[in-house]
Fold this sequence. Notes:
This protein has 266 residues and is mostly helical. It is built from 11 helices and no strands. It has helices at residues 37-51, 58-65, 69-72, 79-91, 104-121, 125-129, 138-150, 158-188, 193-208, 214-222, 229-247. Helix 1 (37-51) crosses helix 2 (58-65) and helix 5 packs parallel to helix 8 (158-188). The protein is flat, with a radius of gyration of 23 Å. The N and C termini lie far apart (59 Å). The model is unreliable at 1-8 and 251-266 (pLDDT under 50).
Amino acid sequence: MAASGRATDGPARGATPEVIWTRPERAGRGPRPAHSRAAIAAAAVRIADADGLDAVSMRRVAAEIGSGTMSLYNYVPRKEDLHELMVDAASAEYDLSAPLTGDWRADVLALAEQSRELMRRHPWLPRLTASAAYGFTPHTLRYLDRFLAALAGLDVPPGTKMELVAMVTASVTSYVTFEIALAERARALPWSEAEEQAVRGAYLAGELGTGEYPHLAAALASAAEPGDYEEAFRRMLGRVLDGFAASGSGAADGEVPDGGAPGGSD
């Protein structure tokens, strides 16, 4: 037990904070390490991809790479550091090689679509993306710099551009979290998803037919049929970008640009 009475997970924390990226992967002297940081991260990612983030433990990662659990702490002092390595390993999958088009909206949407696909390949990633602490790894810094380069043509202050990055990231993370939850629930159903939707649709129709929810009934009556998540994703991001495009039009906050409705146009 720690002095506070709270159980510790592994070796005690140091007296001062430390960023894993400032910690030498290999000391200048002594034998070559038996395991690389990249191999440790890759093992943790494999475990999380197969069994979820909660399955990632120092003990299991150590077993995966053929190390003792206590030996692994020599490479990765804390589980939070392991999570940071995982985020960086996944972020290395971004393809930032194509030249930017000069159309900031198109370039941002392309980056957002990459983020969505990345999170869908690694369903544990949205959970860690929600923590700002993991947003400044080497590969996420490259992605962030690329995002800001894509925004070079948007005439808003740098701080506003950072807000746009944060809003797009939050929107993509929320959307993918929703997609993952739907997929997991569908897999867990003891009947088909179509049967589930039919029963729930009948229930909802009955409730709306009571007249107790007139505004909801009117909205759903005129709403498009759900189904195309790809197009819905692009519409959602487009509306986010519309707000920032209006901000860069020279209008004051809350003012509608001349000749257009709030949100601008594509």
